Amino acid sequence: MRGVTLALLIAVVLAVSTGVSYAHEFGHTAEDHTAQAGPPLFPGSTFETVVEGPGAPRVVRALPNASATAGRSNRRLSLTYFAQLTDFQLVDEESPARVEFVDKGPSSAFRPHEAFHPWAVDYSFRQLNTFTPASPHAQARGVRAPMDLGLLTGDQSDNQQYNETVWARQLIEGGVPITPNSGMKGDYAECPPASRLELQTREGAGEIPDEPTYMGVQDYQDLGFEAPDYWDPNKGEVYNNFPTWPGLMDRAQSLTFTPVGLRRTGVPVPTYISNGNHDGLVQGNEDAVKAFEDLATGCFKVAGSTSTLPIGGEDPNPNLLLSPGVGFAVRPDDAGRRFVDRVELKRIYSFGVQEDGHGFDFIDPAELSASGFSATYWSRELKPGIRFISIDTVSDGGVVEVSSSGNIDDPQWRWLERELDRAESRGELVIAFGHHPIRSLTSDVPDELAQPCSGSYNAAGEYSNEDRHGHDANPGCDLDPRPSSPIHQGDDLRALLSAHGNVIAYVAGHTHENKVLACGHEDGCPRDGNWWEINTSAGAADWPQQSRLVEVMDNRDGTLSIFGTLTDPGGPLAVPAQGTSAAGFGNDELVAISRGVAFNDPQGGDGSGEGASQDQNVELLVEDPRSAIRGRAGR
Questions:
Q1: Do the domain assignments include residue 531?
Q2: 54, β-bridge pairs
Q3: Considering its fold, how many domains does the chain have in total?
Q4: Which CATH number do you get for residue 570?
Q5: Per the domain annotation, does 206 fall within a domain?
Q6: With 80 as the cut, is the pLDDT of residue 14 above it?
Q7: What are the DSSP E strand ranges found in 310-393?
Q8: Cα→Cα distances 7→236, 245, 281, 593, 617, Å
Q9: What angle do CA 196, 197, 201 make, to 5 degrees?
């Protein structure tokens, strides 16, 4: 039996004894089979295993002006085929900038599986790569198109940190070994005297092991007290009777692996980026100021607030998070934990292997200059006759409890109007993509509510008044000198897209749920609207950790079909047995644990993001605007 992992042995035993399957092989979509609850992992536990479930059926949905005609499967021709991935929220879970102790409010403050997000992302790419050579959707005569590109619709990182953004690029591109760990050892010279003394004392006593190791809220020894809001895999019984896997958190920091990235027959498939609120705001809520960055790169991690504990209700005030607290010393001044502004974010992606900077090289030079070089929105004809438009929906003003939702500032809005008019005049189909769906574009916060900048960037990417991290002392300051008002919200975007008949889709993330809406609204399209909003669940941050294959087909009958097909991460579903030491765990075990813990997460597990059948595997019909234009011209 050499080479067979313990997890796979358990899978075989349980499958025989219970009649369920813990296999989740590569090369399947959610139309083939899904995942569902299996028997408890061990007697008396509420932790359910995840087993293979039945496939989700394909649902055909049509706009009023697009009838589904018989025989279209024998006529259709693929126009573009791409993957959508969203909401990785790659977490530096050891960062002092994390505020896990507000978990009873916003569920994004702590997830018990967050240390394993890199493996969920990598195995999502491994699954998608089985479909890059040939689409699961057949054209006429059974021909299947190769994948053209991938769209990343925001929240690639979780906390606007440099290291998280670099990890995101490495996972997207693949090919370079990654160890998703942070923290550093040194002489602690950057630490305040009390923290320096504590760190030196603990290191001298052998309490601080060599890197890489985990120091955070999921190790109660670090905290000095038991905290049942956080699952410690060394003492799993205190968190919802979760399993114990001793050493699991350390293993997640020490395991180096080489991600695959999105590839077709070994060659990278181009991927294109839009930003989410977690990419541009601290914890997806607040503009990054010096005090937050000092905390992120500092030596002390707050684990609980003495003035706000116990936190009651569902809506604690995050403005109190920096009030006096209880916590523990961490390794000092990891510069990888610094925040990134928009210019630095684009620079990180430009340092990768994709020559166009994952789309950021397509930014209009006039918009780039006018925005103080901070613009991240762009437009490009990525396939003949099909224009992809990336919008930035981050509410940069950074007001807590408001700016996690999105908006579009006026300079970007006026650019978008021009781009849509030009595309319509050229007869191009338009697929727009961004982070926030229509229903989440509700922030009324102007960008100017962020801290003002003390300097500016030049065309060479140099900042005129940089701090020790190479950017403004307040890295979330408003770099764009143009007035942001009037701010534009979801109803505005819905009306604008609907006014252009060549727009056929808006692809979004943010809500961590599968949702497909005609023109982005439960009530359907306004007059002349001819597009679908395709909203896909989180790729790693929350269950069901899915991605989506999207393909536009010309039915050659005056309609287009937009196929949306969900995929799960590949790999085994069976987690290791209760109490197994994690010292020997590899990639398969960590991705299985990621899925199993996400499924059981009481905040966002099973039943929270799958959507109804009409939101999962779909064929969405629209009128072919090219045929409509030709028809009008002939009348």
A1: yes
A2: 33
A3: 1
A4: 3.60.21.10
A5: no
A6: no
A7: 325-329, 378-383, 386-390
A8: 18, 12, 39, 10, 30
A9: 120
Q: What is the DSSP letter of 614?
A: G
- 272 Cβ contact partners less than 8 Å away, ≥ 6 residues apart: 149, 150, 151, 152, 358, 359, 382, 388, 390, 433
**Contact indicator for 575, 244 with CB cutoff of 8 Å:** no
Segment 191-200 shows an average pLDDT of 82
Q: Is the pLDDT of residue 104 over 90?
A: no
Contacts of residue 93, defined as CB under 8 A and 6 or more positions apart, other chains included, come to 114, 115, 216, 218
Does a structural domain hold residue 189? no
Chain segment 492-511, per-residue pLDDT in tens: 999 999 999 999 999 999 99
pLDDT digits (tens, 9 = 90+) for 210-269: 888 898 889 988 888 888 888 999 987 777 689 999 999 999 999 999 999 999 999 999
At residue 533, the 3 state secondary structure works out as: strand
Token readout for 339 is 């925040």
Domain presence at residue 190: no
C-alpha pair distances (Å), 355 with each of 272, 349, 358, 455: 12, 10, 8, 29
Measured distance between the N- and C-terminal CA atoms of the chain, rounded to whole angstroms: 74
Q: What type of residue sits at position 65?
A: N
Give the residue numbers spanning the domain of 274: 6-179+212-313+322-328+340-634
